[in-house]
Design a protein that fits this description.
de novo design (two linked rop proteins); 6 helices
Length: 181
């Protein structure tokens, strides 16, 4: 009878541990999936913004009727190996340059297609802001699981690692000057 009690207690403890293990693992998998989905959406929005910039460049060239490469540096971003955060910053710079062109050249300011493109770029800014917030919230939650006991044991066993936030800052390094304008 005593053996049966010990066996039942061990079985109950094992079931509780298995439940905790499965719960933590499933939560981390769920967060990882949400982060990957957000990364995909960010990639798609950045591609849209880049394509809009290409269209705007063609409009600027045709309206100003010259062969200057106004956005050459920005159009070459596609061939560079940079992070999404850096690409986002560069595309925002291109947008600001495009705004300046629109203000400096009255013909561009009157172009309806360019106005539509500028509106679409502004829409992508709002989308990027929302999805990066979503990405960072889920990254923070996943990083909490990776750091805290007992989920850190599960994360090590399944090779979950601390993920960087969208801005690429590593909060675990010794660099304190991470903030950049």
């Amino acid at each position: 009878m005593e053996f049966l009690n010990i066996f039942l207690i061990c079985l109950i403890l094992f079931c509780i541990l298995a439940f905790v293990y499965i719960s933590y693992f499933n939560k981390m998998q769920y967060l990882k999936t949400k982060i990957e989905k957000a990364e995909g959406i960010i990639d798609e929005i950045l591609r849209q913004r880049y394509d809009l910039l290409v269209r705007a460049d063609n409009i600027v060239k045709s309206t100003l009727k010259d062969n200057k490469e106004y956005f050459k540096d920005y159009l070459e971003l596609k061939n560079q190996n940079i992070t999404n955060f850096d690409l986002d910053r560069k595309l925002k710079e291109a947008f600001n340059t495009l705004q300046k062109f629109k203000d400096d050249y009255p013909n561009l300011g009157k172009n309806k297609e360019l106005k539509d493109i500028l509106t679409l770029i502004k829409d992508t800014d709002e989308k990027i802001a929302a999805i990066t917030n979503y990405y960072n919230i889920n990254t923070n939650e996943l990083n909490g699981f990776v750091r805290k006991f007992p989920s850190n044991i599960i994360s090590k066993f399944h090779h979950f690692e601390i993920k960087a936030f969208f801005d690429g800052k590593n909060m675990n390094d010794d660099i304190y000057d991470d903030f950049k304008l």
